[in-house]
Amino acid sequence: MPEEIDNVGNVSQSRYEQIVAELREVVEQQTQGQFTIGDRALEVEPLRSQGGAADAQWSVQNSLVRLAEDIGLTFSTVKNARWTASRWPKERRQAGVSFTVHRVLGQIEDEDERFEAIKTPPVDKARWNTDDAKRRVGWRVETPETPQEKITAIHSLARDEEVAAAVTTDFLKRPQVAAKVSPENKVRAVEELTRDEHVATEVTTGLLRRPDVAFKAMSDDTARHQVNHAQAERGRQAREHFEDTSPVAPAVRHIDRTVEFLDLVTACHSFVAAAGRAVPGLRDRTLDEDQRTIVHENVAKVRATLDWIETAVDTGKVDMDGELARLLKGE
Question: Which of 32, 37, 277, 287 has the fewest CB atoms within 10 Å of its CB?
């Protein structure tokens, strides 16, 4: 088996180490150069206490803008170099640590803590890098490693609402991701997503078609009350709809319409309409044995009830026999 060549990119490991050594010298030179810029900017305009006069602050900016223009740099570059130099007296600057790391660690307010931090890189690290320095001061890193850093990076990228919506949709399409969302957060997400009444109606209708879900939902007193209220309201609307649209409505208007008569006709109309909506939903679906048994029992109740209605209409006798009473009670 041929010996594996340990390359870094397009160069050998030994050449890579030569490049690193060379560039570390360049970075050190750049660090010294940036500190020199900061020191000279401090000489032109020493730092002043916070809350100074507005005219003085304006004078500082004018001086730094002029200095930046005269040396061919941006105002922000000179301003940042001046601030960083002020945080690191010459005897506290650490050789071999880049100017960028000095600038980031300069955010540590306590001087003793700051001066000690730059001498102690993270565990298992020979030297500071920019991301480690950002972690030290609580900034967002360029290359996230921990779960929390990745979460922070995603939040930053998804600040735009359209981007956030697209990302969330894609994530929730991944079963393993959805499975790890806690029940509390799932409930909260569904509540947010169903604020729109049309969406809420579609979702609720679909969920209540699942027998286990419907049974558990009806165990809640408030939910059951709302369903009963909705059914009563639905009956009222069905009655109005019948009177407005049914072909037999004109004939019915000439009849002495008692409340009982209207209620009976409306109940029949509502049952037919509800069945017309529900039955097509069974297309290509196979109910299990328990579900079929429940449906057959209810169909038997409906048949017995229809016979009872016909008897009452034809004879005026509304007494039900014992067998029908037991059937309607579910015995």
Answer: 277
224's tokens: 């059951």
The 10 Å Cβ neighbour count of residue 75 is: 14
Q: Whose CA is closest to 26, among 116, 133, 119, 98?
A: 98
- pTM, two decimals, is 0.51
Tokens 């000179």 locate to 78
The DSSP secondary-structure symbol of 280 reads G
248 vs 265: CA distance, rounded Å: 11
**What are the structure tokens assigned to 127, written together?**
């030297």
Cβ-in-10-Å burial (0-12, 13-18, 19+) of 72 comes to: exposed
pLDDT in tens, 278-293: 888 888 888 888 888 8
Radius of gyration of the chain (CA): 39
Cα–Cα distance measured from residue 149 to residue 142, given in angstroms and rounded to the nearest whole number:
10
Q: What DSSP designation does 141 have?
A: P
- Whether 158 contacts 169, CB under 8 Å: no
On whether the CB atoms of residues 259 and 227 are closer than 8 A, the answer is no
12 forms beta bridges with 7
Q: Tell me how far apart the alpha carbons of residues 231 and 306 are, in angstroms, rounded to a whole number.
A: 20
